[in-house]
Amino acid sequence: xxxxxxxxxxxxxxxxxxxxxxxxxxxxxxxxxxxxxxxxxxxxxxxxxxxxxxxxxxxxxxxxxxxxxxxxxxxxxxxxxxxxxxxxxxxxxxxxxxxxxxxxxxxxxxxxxxxxxxxxxxxxxxxxxxxxxxxxxxxxxxxxxxxxxxxxxxxxxxxxxxxxxxxxxxxxxxxxxxxxxxxxxxxxxxxxxxxxxxxxxxxxxxxxxxxxxxxxxxxxxxxxxxxxxxxxxxxxxxxxxx
Length: 242
Ligand code: MG
Description:
Elements: H1 2-17, E1 48-51, E2 59-61, E3 70-72, E4 75-77, E5 85-91, E6 94-101, E7 116-120, E8 124-128, E9 163-170, E10 173-174, E11 180-182, E12 185-190, E13 193-200, E14 220-224, E15 232-240
Antiparallel strand pairs: 1-15, 2-5, 3-4, 4-15, 5-14, 6-9, 6-15, 7-8, 7-14, 9-12, 10-11, 12-13
This protein binds magnesium ion (MG).
């Protein structure tokens, strides 16, 4: 069992290292049309509801002040330049459900089009971007583990429609000296389609870099990125797995 786990880690790392960060020659995944958007997916009984459409009481800005994003009609909307927001509580291993919507009509191209991001532990980003009929570098497209892994498919819905991410996240493990005992892993579904199948992260996600792991706490806030675009979020819930 241990041998198999090591094997999977090695294979994943090898697959990833073939491509420099943000390489525009890296192939884009096929476009697959997901099923139609539905109503919010109701949280199960053991979920921690982080946003139910009514307020941002469980969130703060980077300085710990009340989050300044707009809440209306059951969703929150990024107010550009107010900065990212993060949960007051910290989390480690988890199952996370997030619903988001890219601005409609779409504006901009490439990375400048409906950009935001879901950061597990404030360090590991699943990209939020509008790649419906729009492209960018593969490891920065919608549902990419930013700078590391493109999604297996482009499952985008059009801007103005609700989309879902379902993420299974295992945090990295460190020994007491900060050596990595086990890297972080992610499995992700975008609009119900598998886009990451237990991908092994090389370290925190970053722009134009793949930094190594740095020892951190077992629980850290979940954060959402302000990338200057009025992306909306609704119905965010999480199940702790530890
Ligand atoms: Mg982003």
